[in-house]
């Protein structure tokens, strides 16, 4: 669609500079929102700018965030896992049961991770080997995994974890930095590198944009998806260890409803729910935004139910605004 | 048929700009009642954009559209439909699980006074529409039970159901067999008699000269010329279109074939094909000819590891290789350029350079980590070799024209340095200029020692390009032809399963 010279023309690598792309990105917009909420919060409550309070506030997003990174990759690839909160319940129950028989911290961690991996493999089998839709499979396993916890525990609860186990959910690495925020940060870096800097990450994007085209390009689509389900299960196991350690006990209702917070975090982070695009930095900022909102509203004594209304509005607002903006701009162009 | 008659639709100085490209630059297009106007141009000339503006999908940046001399603006697709403009697209969206009548009237079904769909009225109206265009099937049939040609008739009936005055046909014959094309020509005649103005977009010159009354030529988004078909010949029209003389002769080659590269022994599939045996030599172009449904693509896809064959072995350089997935095929040097570019060839949503590097990431990366500079280098090397036309290498491949998307797919596979490249209908739906470029390129690849398998339904292409041709019919190899035995007659005869004696008797 340009001139018809016959010589091989020069095609530049990129038209826009890196700075321009970053400035126009979703992540930049989200960062502005995060800063805005931070400023608002610091005016709204005198207790907000206390480093120990802020440190406590990170618990609002660390466990969800760990799963959100794995979920982000899964959603980019065009799949989803709604059973993550139930995997936490099952892993926590397994750890609790083991603790009753005197398992030490190392064993508990191994059990938590193994149960997470097995649950991920169970989901992966139905989706990638049998070719069933992941939303249906994981709605099923969402009930199944938590159901097992209810059968094992009934109305009861497991406690009596070893003292050293408390380190994961209650310990500090250095000064105000909790063990959980450190785990969160390490996982964020690992997933950021995997998604944005490796061949595997590229394959995830390719599959999410066009699974058939990816297959026809020699990508082992089902194998990649299998690994993504395993990773999501594993991260749910990690989150189960942290949450169980923080609470010091296990009930079958542990982490109930968390899967929706995780998906919200991922979508707020700019991951396309239909797959194909999004970034890990976006999810990190989204996790912080959700943490700040919850913490700020908590300081103002806003009840939990109102908080969930606020999170819902935030999600819809942040997603709808750019679309509305584009529609208005398009209208103006027409007139 | 005077030239002074007012056109039904007239596009005057229409301009449309997309970010980075001027798709249409002050183009002129007039459509007259009872006449077929052929819109001619290479890929990327602006034909599709024109159709989208006429049907109200795009809004022009400048210029005027007139209907019967009165300026109009189409706020949306419905406004264009209300003005009597309707299009039959390259791939009209139809619904397999609905009946023919429902497909025809979707969105504007006749209603009873209760506001419910009036099925009886709808079926009788559909019956009449179908009768008008010479279709013989029942409007109550489910669409999925119809063949592709009949589905096309449904699309036509749907276009006519809105009382169209202007019918746009965008490459209507691309997916049709010879007989079906003849039927379509009759249909166009019927529409002409009904007084419709027809815009006919096609890459095939024989059909333009067969059915069009007028022509309009665009080149690179600009208006080049228009006039009566009776006053121009094929060479002059091609020259207008490409801005240079293109003599479509196939590249001259001296086949320089050497040892066997690929041997296929006894390949079979439960339903699609059986008993496939052949060898492919280094530097050879092997044509696969057959009718639609002869099992050529299905066999190629199983050779590429998409579908598993039930029997048979595949030997590469003499040793047996098991190919269970495309990844295995690529690892063994077999690559496949599919017919369905949009779905199987490119990954729309990823930039050009990532599309090209995707199967070669093993080479451009270092221990699993991406190296963007290497990817750009690889993409640049092959896109320059293929004369890719794009704004930048990190542009979404979906923004490219069909011919350039095809170049990206070929570049992607050449970058893997394969031994065997399978091209499935490589020039289908691309313009005459790009076609010649693809042919030249194929010859060049063979020269360099690559073995090429070309699946094609175009007889001149099959004969002009192939060193040897395998004709398939009903999933089996019907004949293997080369040298003097290779002629249009023998190809058609074997593809249709008519023996020589029958031909003579007929």
TrEMBL record, chain A:
<keyword id="KW-0812">Transmembrane</keyword>
<feature type="transmembrane region" description="Helical">
    <location>
        <begin position="109"/>
        <end position="132"/>
    </location>
</feature>
<feature type="transmembrane region" description="Helical">
    <location>
        <begin position="254"/>
        <end position="275"/>
    </location>
</feature>
<feature type="transmembrane region" description="Helical">
    <location>
        <begin position="226"/>
        <end position="248"/>
    </location>
</feature>
<feature type="transmembrane region" description="Helical">
    <location>
        <begin position="28"/>
        <end position="49"/>
    </location>
</feature>
<dbReference type="GO" id="GO:0022857">
    <property type="term" value="F:transmembrane transporter activity"/>
</dbReference>
<dbReference type="InterPro" id="IPR001851">
    <property type="entry name" value="ABC_transp_permease"/>
</dbReference>
<feature type="transmembrane region" description="Helical">
    <location>
        <begin position="173"/>
        <end position="194"/>
    </location>
</feature>
<keyword id="KW-0997">Cell inner membrane</keyword>
<dbReference type="GO" id="GO:0005886">
    <property type="term" value="C:plasma membrane"/>
</dbReference>
<comment type="function">
    <text>Part of the ABC transporter complex LsrABCD involved in autoinducer 2 (AI-2) import. Probably responsible for the translocation of the substrate across the membrane.</text>
</comment>
<keyword id="KW-0472">Membrane</keyword>
<keyword id="KW-1003">Cell membrane</keyword>
<dbReference type="Pfam" id="PF02653">
    <property type="entry name" value="BPD_transp_2"/>
</dbReference>
<keyword id="KW-1133">Transmembrane helix</keyword>
<protein>
    <recommendedName>
        <fullName>Autoinducer 2 import system permease protein LsrD</fullName>
    </recommendedName>
</protein>
<feature type="transmembrane region" description="Helical">
    <location>
        <begin position="61"/>
        <end position="77"/>
    </location>
</feature>
<comment type="subunit">
    <text>The complex is composed of two ATP-binding proteins (LsrA), two transmembrane proteins (LsrC and LsrD) and a solute-binding protein (LsrB).</text>
</comment>
<feature type="transmembrane region" description="Helical">
    <location>
        <begin position="305"/>
        <end position="326"/>
    </location>
</feature>
<feature type="transmembrane region" description="Helical">
    <location>
        <begin position="282"/>
        <end position="299"/>
    </location>
</feature>
<keyword id="KW-0813">Transport</keyword>
TrEMBL record, chain B:
<keyword id="KW-0813">Transport</keyword>
<feature type="domain" description="ABC transporter">
    <location>
        <begin position="9"/>
        <end position="245"/>
    </location>
</feature>
<dbReference type="InterPro" id="IPR027417">
    <property type="entry name" value="P-loop_NTPase"/>
</dbReference>
<dbReference type="GO" id="GO:0005524">
    <property type="term" value="F:ATP binding"/>
</dbReference>
<keyword id="KW-0472">Membrane</keyword>
<keyword id="KW-0762">Sugar transport</keyword>
<feature type="domain" description="ABC transporter">
    <location>
        <begin position="252"/>
        <end position="499"/>
    </location>
</feature>
<keyword id="KW-0067">ATP-binding</keyword>
<keyword id="KW-1003">Cell membrane</keyword>
<dbReference type="Pfam" id="PF00005">
    <property type="entry name" value="ABC_tran"/>
</dbReference>
<dbReference type="InterPro" id="IPR050107">
    <property type="entry name" value="ABC_carbohydrate_import_ATPase"/>
</dbReference>
<dbReference type="InterPro" id="IPR003593">
    <property type="entry name" value="AAA+_ATPase"/>
</dbReference>
<keyword id="KW-0547">Nucleotide-binding</keyword>
<dbReference type="InterPro" id="IPR003439">
    <property type="entry name" value="ABC_transporter-like_ATP-bd"/>
</dbReference>
<dbReference type="GO" id="GO:0016887">
    <property type="term" value="F:ATP hydrolysis activity"/>
</dbReference>
<keyword id="KW-1278">Translocase</keyword>
<keyword id="KW-0677">Repeat</keyword>
<dbReference type="InterPro" id="IPR017871">
    <property type="entry name" value="ABC_transporter-like_CS"/>
</dbReference>
<dbReference type="GO" id="GO:0005886">
    <property type="term" value="C:plasma membrane"/>
</dbReference>
<protein>
    <submittedName>
        <fullName>ATP-binding cassette domain-containing protein</fullName>
    </submittedName>
</protein>
């Amino acid at each position: 669609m340009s001139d018809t010279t016959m010589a091989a023309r020069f095609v530049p690598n990129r038209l826009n500079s890196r700075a321009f792309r970053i400035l126009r990105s979703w992540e930049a917009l989200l960062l502005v929102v995060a800063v805005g909420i931070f400023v608002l919060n610091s005016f709204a409550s005198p207790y907000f700018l206390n480093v120990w309070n802020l440190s406590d506030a990170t618990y609002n997003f660390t466990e969800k965030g760990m799963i959100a990174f794995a979920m982000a990759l899964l959603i980019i690839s065009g799949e989803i896992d709604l059973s993550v909160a139930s995997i936490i319940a099952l892993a926590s129950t397994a750890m609790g049961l083991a603790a009753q028989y005197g398992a030490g911290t190392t064993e508990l961690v191994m059990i938590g991770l193994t149960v997470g991996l097995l649950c991920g493999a169970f989901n992966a089998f139905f989706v990638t080997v049998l070719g069933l839709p992941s939303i249906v499979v994981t709605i099923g396993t969402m009930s199944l995994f938590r159901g097992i916890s209810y059968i094992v525990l009934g109305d009861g609860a497991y406690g009596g974890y070893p003292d050293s186990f408390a380190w994961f959910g209650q310990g500090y690495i250095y000064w105000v930095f909790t063990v959980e925020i450190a785990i969160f940060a390490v996982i964020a870096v690992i997933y950021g590198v995997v998604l944005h800097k490796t061949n595997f990450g590229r394959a995830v994007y390719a599959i999410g944009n066009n699974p058939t085209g990816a297959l026809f390009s020699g990508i082992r689509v089902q194998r990649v998806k299998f690994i993504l389900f395993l990773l999501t299960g594993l991260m749910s196991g990690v989150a189960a260890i942290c949450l169980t350690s923080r609470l010091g006990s296990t009930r079958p209702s542990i982490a109930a409803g968390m899967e929706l917070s995780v998906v919200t975090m991922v979508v707020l982070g700019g991951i396309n729910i239909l797959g194909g695009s999004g970034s890990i930095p976006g999810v990190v900022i989204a996790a912080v935004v959700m943490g700040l909102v919850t913490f700020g509203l908590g300081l103002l004594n806003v009840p939990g139910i109102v908080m969930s209304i606020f999170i819902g509005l935030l999600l819809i607002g942040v997603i709808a605004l750019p679309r509305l903006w584009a529609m208005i701009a398009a209208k103006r162009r027409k007139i | 048929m005077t030239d002074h008659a007012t056109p039904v639709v007239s596009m005057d100085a229409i301009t449309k700009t997309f970010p980075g490209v001027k798709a249409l630059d002050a183009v002129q297009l007039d459509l007259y009642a009872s006449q077929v106007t052929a819109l001619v141009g290479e890929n990327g000339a602006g034909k599709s954009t024109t159709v989208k503006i006429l049907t109200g999908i795009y809004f022009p940046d400048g210029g005027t559209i007139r209907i019967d001399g009165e300026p109009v603006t189409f706020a949306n697709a419905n406004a264009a439909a209300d003005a009597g403009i309707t299009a039959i697209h390259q791939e009209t969206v139809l619904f397999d699980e609905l009946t023919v009548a429902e497909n025809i009237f979707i969105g504007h079904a006749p209603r009873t006074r209760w506001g419910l769909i009036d099925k009886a009225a709808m079926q009788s109206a559909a019956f009449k529409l179908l009768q008008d265009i010479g279709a013989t099937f029942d409007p109550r049939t489910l669409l999925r039970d119809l063949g592709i040609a009949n589905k096309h008739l449904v699309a036509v009936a749907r276009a006519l159901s809105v009382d169209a005055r202007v019918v746009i046909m965008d490459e209507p014959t691309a997916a049709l067999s010879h007989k079906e094309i003849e039927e379509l020509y009759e249909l166009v005649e019927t529409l002409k008699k009904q007084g419709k103005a027809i815009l006919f977009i096609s890459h095939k010159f024989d059909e333009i000269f067969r059915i069009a009354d007028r022509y309009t030529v665009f080149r690179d988004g600009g208006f080049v010329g228009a006039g009566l078909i009776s006053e121009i010949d094929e060479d002059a029209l091609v020259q207008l279109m490409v801005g240079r003389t293109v003599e479509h002769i196939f590249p001259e080659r001296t086949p320089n074939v050497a040892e066997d590269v690929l041997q296929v022994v006894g390949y079979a599939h439960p339903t699609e094909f059986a008993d496939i045996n052949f060898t492919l030599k280094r530097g050879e172009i092997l044509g696969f000819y057959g009718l639609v449904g002869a099992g050529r693509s299905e066999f190629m896809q199983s050779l590429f590891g998409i579908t598993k064959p039930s029997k048979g072995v595949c030997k590469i350089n003499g040793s047996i290789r098991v190919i269970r997935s495309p990844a295995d095929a690529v690892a063994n040097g077999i690559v496949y350029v599919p017919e369905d570019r949009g779905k199987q060839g490119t990954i729309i949503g990823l930039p050009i350079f990532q599309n090209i590097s995707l199967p070669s990431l093993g080479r451009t990366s270092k221990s699993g980590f991406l190296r963007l500079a290497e990817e750009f280098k690889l993409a640049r090397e092959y896109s320059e070799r293929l004369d890719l036309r794009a704004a930048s290498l990190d542009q979404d491949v979906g923004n490219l024209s069909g011919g350039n998307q095809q170049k990206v797919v070929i570049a992607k596979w050449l970058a893997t340095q394969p031994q065997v490249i399978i091209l499935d209908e490589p020039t289908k739906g691309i313009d005459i200029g790009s076609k010649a470029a693809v042919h030249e390129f194929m010859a060049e690849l063979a020269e360099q020692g690559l073995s090429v398998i070309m699946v094609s339904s175009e007889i001149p292409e099959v004969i002009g390009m192939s060193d040897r041709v395998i004709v398939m019919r009903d999933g089996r190899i019907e004949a293997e032809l080369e040298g003097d035995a290779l002629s249009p007659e023998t190809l058609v005869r074997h593809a249709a399963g008519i023996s020589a004696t029958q031909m003579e008797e007929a």
